[in-house]
Amino acid sequence: MVGCSFIILALLLGLFGAGISDAQRPSVFAVLKNTSTILIVVYCLLYLAGLVIRAYRYRLLLSLSGEKNVPTVRQMWLVTGIRNMVVDLLPARLGELGYVALLNRGYGVKLEHCVSSLTISVAFDFVALLLVVLAIVGSQVLGVGVQGWAIGALIMSLIVAGIAVLGLFAITPWFARLIDAKFSTKWNADSLLGKALDLLNKFTDSVQKVRHSGQTLKVLVVSVVIRALKYLGFFLLFKAVAAPSFESLAALPTGHVIGALIGGEIGASLPVPTFMSFGAYEAGGALVFQLLGVADQAAAVITLLCVHIWSQLMEYAIGGLLLALFIWVNRKGKQAAVLTDMAGSPKRAKAMAAASFIGAGAILALGSGFLAYQLWAASKLGAVSAPSSGGVADNVEDWKQLSKEHVSRLDGFVVFSSNRDGNHDIFKLDLSRFELSKLTNHPNTETYPRISPNGERLVFARAHQEWVSQRNTVAWDVYVLDLGTMQEQKVGENGTAPRWLNNSEITYLQDTNKVQRVNVDTGQSGIVFQSGVNNRLPKQAQLQNPSFNPHTSVLAYTARQNHIGTNTGHWGTAVTSSDNHRGVMNGCELAWSYDGRYLYQVNPDAETLRIMKLDPQTLESQTMIDLAGEFSHEYWPKDSSNGEYFVFGASRGKKDHEHDTKDYEIFLWKTGSSASEATRLTFHTGNDNWPDVYIR
Length: 696
Hints:
Layout (H helix, E strand, L loop, with lengths): L1 H13 L10 H10 L2 H28 L8 H14 L10 H11 L3 H32 L5 H36 L8 H20 L4 H30 L1 H4 L3 H16 L10 H12 L5 H46 L3 H34 L16 H12 L4 E7 L6 E6 L4 E4 L7 E6 L5 E7 L12 E7 L5 E6 L1 E6 L4 E6 L3 E6 L5 E6 L12 E7 L4 E7 H4 L6 E7 L2 E7 L1 E5 L6 E7 L2 E7 L6 E5 L7 E7 L5 E7 L13 E6 L8 E2 L7 E8 L1
């Protein structure tokens, strides 16, 4: 049971990664957090009510088909809840076969009756769907007039329901009689084909018993109630998601919403290879919204995705509990059978006990491993909420005075991102006056500021939402800020890590695997690098912090080591040109110097980090600076446009390394001087990150 619980929990965690793009994930999480709790509870109650009625229908169909070993209400409830959980695991609803396996293997229901009760319920679901669509069309006739999408849905549901009913109650019996007449005498009853023919005949007889039972109207009424509860629940779930975040969607007519939900269900039923129907469901519903003329398609897709996630969470949470209960109850029954058998065959009892022990151990190991992997994967998505803004550090005035004395002779400034005012904005520290000012004031997270070589402009990344973890490199746009006029200009979408090539051109990472080059004055752009295109990287290789050398057209970057061909750790760095690719070493933040003559990067040293200098030809490295003392975990090295100074951040150690949530302080260091001469510039327990420096 513990192993099964771990597997279900891992699947629930996987929901947040499956089918959600990096660009959508922050928006999806924000909408999920804002979802109405009260309506979620109501949806849960409607779901449980629908579960009970579905179980009743399955029992009714089994009894009408002639099955003598009909499961109890409790047993049928367990099977129905588990069936609802596994139905979307495979495309085209092949997960329905789990229902057959549970009844047949768990409760001894004959296979033909398992299949007939399943197929009849599906057929009546289609008929009930047709009635729902007819009700929508009827309401439109009495209202504003029939719309084109409703006519299309009516035709489609009519065709599907007609095929299901005729195929099940007319074509299947005719086909069974035809096959039986032609081949029954030619096939051995014990052969595979003979057994298949026997199963077909028994299945047909089971279906015909239900058909002639006189209870089909009752089955139809129950199916309509199931369908009505389902769409009522999904409608309330849609309202729960849309109302707090997208008022225009929440105000849509009921018929429009139900139509989109039906479109999503049809999309999820298509034979498309998806995990838990993610992607197919959203595409089907979004298509209906598009036909209805809904303007904000992005909001529609996010809302449908969140509805899908909430519904899957409900189904897997309830289904997981019922699966654990199913296994526990059946295990108790098997233990009783083993005890009965022990008197006659002790060896067999011991063998079965050993097999059960091994099987349980395997399930526990599998569940534990799967859960550990999902927890690790979830942690790599970054923090799900913004960190505390922190406060002023102790003895700040004494430290500030000392730092001011060290840098007051410098004519220049440092910029960095900081959350000290509540969320990450871009700050500027004037070195000669040691005065801090705020360059941006936007509700969304801003980071990665970079100063143009002439010190006149700033490029930075702004998140699509109030909070986006820096581990997400897509949900950002790139902006240029004129430091004279303070006017902003958007120059790139779905990207981050911008860098200046000269006073008018930048590069930035787009969609995790492309490096775009943009002239911010003319708007001209082009791709200078893309994973898997004229290079040895896999197409899916994701880059971090690319640094392009315009003089040699060589790109330096960080990536997963299995993508760049090094094997000394999880992350590694590499340099790539059109005709050469070299993995450098374990580390990160590999970048070109201001003049493109050498490389520098952050590299681990025991429990801390240090900043290294690398020869671009030999890749030989030497330590540039390695701080001692409290702040010894260096990150984000960046040289000034004249190469005289380096600015970087530092945290207290490996456990406090998360880039956008932990306490980092900003340091300034004169290139080539002693590490002890590095000057601390910030004194705040909030998160300060990605600094840059300009010295006139």
